[in-house]
Amino acid sequence: EVSTEDPETAFCTLANREDLNPEEGSIYHCLYQFTCNEKLTETNKLLCDVCTQRHYGPKNHLKSENKYVYTNAKKQMLISLPPPILTFHLKRFQQAGFNLRKVNRHIKFPDVLDLAPFCTAKCKNVGEGNTKVLYSLYGVVEHSGTMRSGHYTAYAKVRSMNRHLSDLVLRGQYPQALETEPVKGQWFHISDTHVQAVSAAKVLSSQAYLLFYERLL
To answer: Where is the USP domain (predicted)?
Structure first.
């Protein structure tokens, strides 16, 4: 969808992303890099219908002459509708010559994550005046081994029902007041049929492959 907006506000976010200063090797740094402004120049210039019509005349004249005007532009990926459940899939492989190699680097991720610096200022499903979009971690999938063989295990939090989240999913309603604390519960490590209670610190130190967050609102 292409829309025409004020250039001064088109790239504004719900919370100031420049105050973040994200730590390299963290999920915040990944999100920051993914949502950075990208300049489209030279061979990446954008085809501009307005510029083309201004230069060559009406569109119906273009079909026969196949003339277009390309212009420099800026591109940015931002979130316009924060989901009730937020899932991150971390790329755990890299190209090494003709082979794929697993990336074992630890990526830091928080118990409570604020998505607001990566959301558009006109974000939907956010209460008026709110500048935070908070999520609580409830699940992690971890992979041990190599690209050829390995084992998947999971961390899951047994927690009480999140009624605010239920209202959002079932009725599309969101409260004006934000919950800022993570959903209370007990973490468990699941490996095949073996289940063991673990601490939150153990979970946050895991080598995450998949991360699952629920909206705190």
So the answer is: 1-216
